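Entry:
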Amino acid sequence: MFTGSLVALITPMDSKGNVDHVSLKKLVEYHIANGTSAIVSVGTTGESATLNHQEHIDVIKRTVDYAQGRIDIIAGTGSNATKEAIELTRQVENIGVVGCLTVAPYYNKPTQEGMYQHFKAIAECTALPQILYNVPGRTSSDIKPETVGRLSKIKNIVALKDATGDLSRVYKTRKLVGDDFKLLSGDDATFLDFMILGGDGVISVTANVAAKQVATVCQLAANNQIKEARALNESLLALHNNLFIEPNPTPAKWACLRLGLIADGTIRLPMISLTDASIPAVEQALKDANLL
């Protein structure tokens, strides 16, 4: 569990900004058919910041229902308020998810001890496995390897999604957490090197549009077929970069629409649709990956 290609799934919306359940079901089928290991439902790529609590839980429940046990579903349950994260975690406990992804508290800028107590409190409220999510570029909070090491001693904290892009952390963190703890990249541009250095997989934005390719790169890397993995990943490099040409998930939603995976590319304010200036770069990246 928690290895290979896990997708940070977008939340499709219709032209009025309501969740598009038909497109959501289509996305689940796409990932089942193309070898994705697990779906992260309503993580930050799923616009967790702009869904209300009822929508948040409903999208996760529907994703579980659509999957029908054919693919693991991980619930995004993070918040910068520990109490709110605990509430969300408790609400997904008995709906069929295999674990939770919990982002580092954003804006608050807690100390390392504050982050340790935050994640410890969440883990202690549930039996569900917990994946820590470190993305300092978005949260302004950095879970240091030493804090990850401390947290790994808590029985149901079982993995880390590291979106720092700092490959030196793989070896440093691995030494502190042991072999059973899973290390997942959260940075598409460096995920293959992350795996080569000892990581277990990726929670990927690119997989939203290139599910089969990302899954195959992960499988090749896990089998130590590094030359083949690099060759395939090279065709995805423009996607890895240009899906972040504007703030995530704006480009990913546009790309999903361009490929016919969703019916509408609407994104909720304060995010806006992909600008005309960025469209050619994303379209070319899709062509480079042989998706168009």
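The chain has one domain: 4-224.
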